[in-house]
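G.,

No rush on this.
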Amino acid sequence: MMRNPDQILSVAQMRAAEDALIAAGETVDSLMERAGRGAAQWVWRMAGGRPVTILCGPGNNGGDGYVIARELHQRGAQVAVIAPLPPATEAATRACASFSGAVSEEGAGGVLVDCLFGSGLTRPLSAELFGLLRRLAAAHHFRIAVDLPSGIESDTGRPLNAGLPDYHLTLALGAWKFAHWLIPAMQAMGARRVVDIGVTPVAEAAECIARPALFAPPRDAHKYTRGLLAVVGGAMPGAAMLAARAAMHGGAGYVKLLAPSRPLAAPDELVVEEAPLDRALADSRLAALLVGPGLGRDAAARGRLAAALSANRPTVVDADGLVLLEPSLLDGCSAPLLLTPHEGELARLCDAFSVSGDGRVARAQALARASGGVVVAKGPDTLVAAPDGTLRIAPPASSWLSTAGTGDVLAGLMASRLASGAEPLHAATEAVWLHGEAAHLAGPVFSAAGLVQMLPGAYAACL
């Protein structure tokens, strides 16, 4: 079976995947050899002739470290192994015995390889181990974490100790773990790479969002076959206008702004309809709706949100729409729904829908189940959760996205993909990728309007 380089596994899923490999003929020792040899390749490259210090813990993560040490030693590298605790598993004991070099008490100067604890850690490091790790990190110019940095909880990305060191490279063994892609852990991991040990695709595993495959319209396409999107405007026309501008570059063939009055700065190519909202929403050609950017939060805004949801079209709810959304407004709605909360809006929606969870992943999944919609939990570690439990996590995007209006751009892209005919989960992940790529193309200190200008280039990267 082919590997899935994008899958993200929980601790339980990773253990089950390793058990499946063992049931198929591997052993703990053979998997440790694969992991250690694969990691040693990366350490060798990064060391570049510098001395290497490997900090080995008592478990199998420490066993991986002994294999790395042996491989580097055999290549002629200067290797110091520091083992504050003796091996506590049979495989780690055998790996330790295979290393013919000396075990030291200190190391400094070159590359530190952290093999103290891996993905199964659930409690803080002891004061002694934490102090040792910090001293060694401070004494080395380069730092590599094997599987995960020691002191990180794998399934949530939470640090179990305050003040853990950061790393220049993190080598995920076998598959990505959640902590590799979640704040705050991912900020301290540097570059990330997967070391293949033979893990095959795991059913229901989360995945990283990858570059989508998009297509040019067919030769016989016209604006309606490509999708008519209506952006429901409100009290603040600027945000709705920005979302509409973004939507024009997201694949939809026709974008219309349903506004209480015509904005002064509407571009010539944007159709602005000032008809009563109920009448405008009755257009049978509408393929999707976006409601929320610039909507306002008063009674009139709530009425416009209710009207949009009552139209029962595929709908993206963003910004003010999320503040106003209540479960009762979804009664009778069966069309696809996308919700795009940032952290504060996610907390507010979880309260409104009476759901909870340990961490953002669990909360986003619980909200998706309760609302019946795809939830895009925005942030430096954007998550896309579907009602059936499917989970996608975006690779880190530019931190320059932390400026006003970029969320409206993302909402417009999602609605445009939805109007183009993409399924809700795909519409969300495609838009998230395009948004991140546009930010990459924009460089530093861009505005939301500048981000919109980069969308054609981002789209072209997917054709």
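When you get to it, here's the other one too:
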Amino acid sequence: MPKPSLREALLDAACEEFDARGYAATGVAAIATRAGAPKGSFYNHFASKEELALASLERYGVNRRLGMLGDRSKPPLQRIQAHLAYLRDDLARHSFGRGCLFGTFAAESASSAALSAAAKEGLD
């Protein structure tokens, strides 16, 4: 079996850390520790915490199955109902302990135009 990608492990860890603590309170060291990686290896995969945060928001959108809302092969109401059912079931799988990463980033990313834009795009 191939060795899991360190980049993917860092991205997984970042999603968990950002979800639990938000962007400002999450440091590169905490992300690297959660991923089981040396802090220095972080910069082999991401130029900055902001770059990692943008990748995290992209992954979050995919995991939220936002694409199902744009599936024109189904009527709009059916798409919305299916999406809300998916979100409900996903929240239940996580014991209703997770918030919305787009909302978290939108609330605290005023210092980063790129993060603000990515969060807005996800919410739109």
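Residues 91 and 97 are 7 Å apart (CA to CA). The two ends are 39 Å apart (CA to CA).

Enjoy the weekend,
O.
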